[in-house]
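name: query_chain
kind: protein
chains: 1
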Amino acid sequence: MSSYGTGLVIGKFYPPHAGHRHLIEVAAAESERVFVVVLGSRFESLTMEERAKWLGAEFASFPNVEVLIQADDCPVDYDSDEMWKAHVELMRSVLKGAGVGEVDAVFTSEMYGYQLAEAFGAQHVVVDPERRAHPVSGTLCRDDLNAAWPHIIEPARQGLATRIIVVGAESTGTTTLARALTDHYRSQFPTIGDVPEYGRLRTYEKLDELRRRDPRAGVEDLVWTTEDFSSIAERQNELENTAASRCPLVIADTDSLATELWERRYMGPHSFGAAEAAGNLPRRDLYLLTDHEGVEFEDDGLRDGEHIRPDMTEWFKDALTAAGHSWVLVTGSHERRMATATRIIDLILEQRSTFTSPPWATRTVLTGAMA
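structure:
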């Protein structure tokens, strides 16, 4: 039986991490219903909507947890009664909008929780103030996103990961570039994983299956179906998201958007097996499109599309532009392609790992390093 009727958890959740999850789990276990209020400032890099979406996904299986958002640009000064009242009234107002008039318990890991609970006439429940259960803080996450990655909640990792997708027509160097970029960034991101082109792996599988029935069969004898492309696109998304779960940098050798174009190549314009997966792409940072010009066609026994390479390059340009994606055509030698790619990726990584905060923001310093 719950100890409290209505519980309240407030915070920036900038970004949401395992300590936040523990705090909300405790509140949910001890309350009939819990309202999590995300307070976001215009001076912060992540929107409060993003943070609330990630928390909502993390607690989707908790029917008594509801996530609310409230813009809060009031400076923080715990010694100012006027500013403290301004913060409290923002919280009270967003709760009122959700139909909440009274709060029975305020759950925090911070000393200000006593003052906040008093303002609501509620009980203060302190949860792991020394961060022993989860030695992590928002400050540590913002200071070193790479090191903190395992401590960030899964939906936030999916949203925060920098995703670089390499695409292109047959035999234009996509796999070579994707592998070289992965190797290049491995020292900076030791947990970076390979995201291979699953369609190629599936081609090997289908060919092996066919040759067990007919040893003389070749790639030209393969029969593709709409269902094939649907499963390939879904699996490509899974591989990419698994890599994002492990590391804040993902470099993928193709994706489900590209699978749509390969489906068009082999099945014609009226086959839509990959459409659903391609319509549910995670956020992208950049597509690198490998140019067919200046690259010799290499027939490895699975390729038969030398004649269509120029057309497919145009298909990629059109599809990426129509979808509103950021993309760069990489041309020239492999060395020049790497130079182009790393130059822009380095800038994206710097931007994605920089978290801005208002001048009054405090830093949480924990005893000991993150586990």
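note: The mean pLDDT is 93.
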